[in-house]
Each structure stands twice: as C-alpha cells, then as structure tokens.
Design brief:
- It is a single chain.
- By secondary structure, this protein is mostly helical.
- The protein is built from 4 helices and no strands.
- Helix 3 packs antiparallel against helix 4.
Length: 100
C-alpha cells in the first residue's frame, strides 16, 4: 500500500522545482509514456526523493497492475555497463521494460 508521506498533494512547489513537479506528475499520470526515462537532478532539499516516491505512490494507487522499479543511478549504470560488457543488452532492456 502506498505511503501517505510522499504525495503530489504534499509537495511544496517553488520556483526551483516547478518544472520537476510537472514532469513527475506527467510521468505518474502516463506511466512509461511521458518523460521516459525521467531524470531528476538537483541540490539537497529540493524534493527529488519526494517526487520520485510520489510517482511510485500515484502509480501503485491508480495503476495497480503496473510495477515500479526504483533504483539508484549507480545501480542502473552498473547494470547497463555490465549488459554491454557481457553482450546481454536484451536482458537489460527486458528488466527495465517488462512489468515484473
């Protein structure tokens, strides 16, 4: 069940994060279609974690058949480099495109 702590309603929008909020909401409303992939970069305290968790919570609540994969940039890049090194990019693509 999604946590109530990180939602779009609870996010404080300001001049430094307005576009990130709009992009994150678009991703949540149209999973795997809008801004795919979505990268959020910024200084500490601007709401990156809140937005990513809000996407997760929105998707889990509104699209119960979908799965959310949440990994760090380091994990993603390590898996990407390993897929290239081992010539297994097909498996890498399936991992991030399939619903399970």
């Amino acid at each position: 069940m999604p946590s109530g702590r990180y939602t779009f309603d609870g996010f404080v929008i300001g001049p430094s994060n307005r576009f990130a909020h709009a992009a994150a909401l678009s991703v949540a409303e149209s999973p795997a279609r809008a801004y795919n992939p979505l990268f959020i970069i910024g200084d500490a305290g601007l709401g990156k974690t809140h937005l990513l968790q809000a996407i997760r919570n929105y998707v889990l609540e509104n699209f119960p058949k979908l799965h959310v994969r949440y990994v760090s940039t380091e994990t993603f890049m390590n898996e990407f480099v390993e897929a290239i090194r081992s010539n297994s990019t097909g498996a890498f693509k399936r991992r991030y495109r399939d619903s399970k």
